[in-house]
Design brief:
- The protein is of the alpha/beta class.
- It is built from 14 helices and 13 strands.
- Helix 13 (292-304) packs across helix 14 (327-344).
- The radius of gyration is 20 Å and the shape is globular.
- 50% of the residues are buried.
- Bound molecules: pyridoxal-5'-phosphate (PLP).
Length: 345
């Protein structure tokens, strides 16, 4: 039962069957385009996301970086949500390595509004101003509490961007969570988007890896950038096999994670904690205590009882449900958090 680790859905460990699939994977040198397992994974990913082709990369961060480097040249602007993962948690790689200028817009815990986007554009053809080349969207939205944006909401932004001459990149680290929560195909969520990055190492439970899905031409150009940032791997089929295994087994069970997150949220709310539910929640629960001191006490007390979660602000916490947390563990974790909270009051 313990520890119950809810700090992220990245903590999942490969199961015995996943390890077996890795062990038995047929491999080759993928930099030479000779790894059949990587090829199968890329083909499957492209199919699921409704794109022509896909490129296997080491991480979500590398997937976003390589995508942005492929879309933009030095000095181009990329419109990004203030709370987006790309802006908040990727070390500023787009600027450090690509000279791309982030143009922040309020993402309102999901997707920016069309009017905010329109306002963010600089006058065209005026040399004083950075010209936006790309719009980035995030689905589900991590700092938005795991909110799932609908196909319609995404399509409106994509249509707006294309009408203004911008390309669209979707950071879909958890796009499968969004698809399952909304009961739609993942491809519907990224329809007409120019590129999408999906993580295999989050809710799907693979030990590493992401896919960039896009047009064949885009993927071929992205392959050059992947090599430049050191992401060309040799017998990568060993790890790609885990991704293939995850595609087959892990997507359908994401609904269990969402239900477990809902149960935890409900229990914490009943226990008197402030829970911030996303409008269309998935596998995350954000909650807060009245002040910073009580937050630190609660975190330490729960850690002592081997219930682990993370702090995202001085008085705010995030819990993420995943493959390695059962319903019983989810309920037990909620009970411990509420118990410790009450003891402190
Ligand atoms: C985790 C995450 C990433 C980056 O993935 P890594 O594999 O950790 O580099 C990108 N975007 C979002 C929304 C994420 O949650």
């Amino acid at each position: 039962m313990f520890p119950i680790d809810l700090k992220s859905d990245t903590v999942t460990k490969p199961s015995a069957e996943m390890r077996r699939a890795m062990c038995e994977a047929e491999v080759g040198d993928d930099v030479y385009g000779e790894d059949p397992t990587v090829e199968r994974l890329e083909k499957k990913g492209a199919e699921l996301l409704g794109k022509e082709a896909a490129l296997y990369v080491t991480s979500g961060t590398q997937g976003n970086l390589v995508s942005l480097l492929t879309h933009c040249v030095r000095g181009d602007g990329a419109i990004l949500g203030k709370d987006s993962h790309i802006l908040q948690y990727e070390g500023g790689g787009l600027s450090a390595l690509g000279g791309i200028i982030p143009m922040e817009v309020d993402d309102r815990k999901s997707l920016p509004s069309i009017s905010d986007l329109e306002r963010r554009l600089n006058p065209k053809g005026n040399v004083h101003f950075v010209q936006a080349k790309l719009l980035c969207l995030e689905n589900t939205h991590n700092r938005g509490g795991g909110h799932a944006s609908s196909p319609q909401e995404a399509a409106e932004r994509v249509e707006w961007a294309h009408s203004r001459g911008l390309a669209v990149h979707v950071d879909g680290a958890r796009i499968f969570n969004a698809a399952v929560a909304l009961g739609v195909k993942p491809s519907e969520l990224v329809k007409d988007a120019d590129s999408v990055q999906v993580c295999l190492s989050k809710a799907l439970g693979a030990p590493m890896g992401s896919l960039i899905c896009a047009s064949r031409d885009f993927v071929e150009r992205a392959r050059f950038w992947r090599k430049k940032v050191g992401g060309g791997l040799r017998q990568a089929g060993i790890v790609a096999a885990a991704g293939l295994y995850a595609f087959e087994r892990s997507i359908v069970r994401l609904a269990d994670d969402h239900e477990n997150a809902r149960l935890i949220g409900e229990a914490l709310r009943k226990g008197g904690l402030r829970v911030f539910g996303a409008d269309r929640p998935t596998n995350m629960v954000y909650f807060s205590t009245p002040d910073e001191a009580s937050a630190d006490r609660l975190l330490a007390a729960c850690r002592e009882k081997r219930v682990i979660f993370s702090k995202t602000a001085p008085d705010t916490f995030r819990l993420v449900t995943h493959l390695d947390v059962s319903r019983e563990q989810a309920l037990a974790a909620a009970e411990i958090i509420v118990g410790e909270y009450r003891t402190q009051q």
